[in-house]
Amino acid sequence: MKSRFLTTATAIMLPLVPAVAQTAKAPFLPEWDSLKKHETPEWYHDAKFGIYAHWGGYCVPAFINEWYPRGIYIKDSAEYQHHLDTYGDPSKFGYKDFIPMFKAEKFDPEAWAALYARAGAKFAGPVAEHHDGFSMWASKVNRWNAKDMGPKRDVVGELLTAIRKQGLQTMVSFHHHYYMPGTMGPNGYYTLMEGADVADPKYADLYQKRPLEQENKVWRDKILEVIDAYQPDLIWMEMLVDKEPEAFRREVLAHYFNRAAERNQQVVFTHKGDFGPLPVLDIERGRKEAASPEIWQTDDSISDGTWCYVENLRMKPAGQLIHELIDIVSKNGVLLLNVCPMADGSFPDDQKQLLTAG
Predict the structure, then answer these.
(1) What is the per-residue pLDDT across 201-225, written as a single tens digit (0 to 9) for each?
(2) For the whole model, what pTM was predicted?
(3) Which CATH superfamily is domain 4-356 in?
(4) Is the four-CA dihedral 336, 341, 347, 351 of positive or negative sign?
């Protein structure tokens, strides 16, 4: 059965500008003038549609949205009250205690990749790490990772391997940032609650409570580790990257582009927020008003209310998503659509039907 997404969009996939083939200009220097010479590859201009998934320990409580880990440490929040009623006081049961419950017993990377390909995606991958600080790969940088805890599987590695077997390009997204005063409060993503594990020095590495210099280095090292271990074709970077040291941002990009050039790999870097003067801007849940001479990206979810699986998840109608894709592609954009697997690694039937309806 042909994908409704792919079939509908094909008719309007007329590029507004000629596709650009990447030419290797390595070595790229960690300077903006050098990094700006990197060219967006032809495969991305042609792709138009990708899929990724928010999947992690926050799917276990399956309540409200993927920001549940933050909310349980805010006493006037719905998440805190739900947590208190369901799991107990955060001083007794914190976010770290969901990790052993995140077993992913039904996770089948081959089935995920086949579903993505059937839906018509041309690139796909996982959220490598969300704001919660739990790495979904076999990390040596972060002890809080999916290979050593929770699923005890290299989720990023297994999934990217399966996606490549389907003939798709691969991607990962990074959402981890630390110490963001003025944006999320003085304590970063996790609000500091005295007496809870979030204030315990033993868990400072998960809850991002180490000295700023150390946290910034870990931010950089996690990304470099994924680049070297998994060679993703696309990296998508979350908001607030301007809070990271500019030298580290430039270092990450130079490393990514140079490693790709060594492999003759054509890669894409797309970002939300002020990462630097780079071409592929991501507009979360948004669109351009008119056609753009430069390619751009929208990331959106199958649900208006959440990016991860929650109980009674309300999905957008297929027609709404199709029209969104048509509008984005007609303006020289790319849609990266988020799906919402359950904590056990399975997809509910209604999500599979949405992706494969013909």
Answers:
(1) 999 999 999 988 898 999 999 999 9
(2) 0.92
(3) Glycosidases (3.20.20.80)
(4) negative
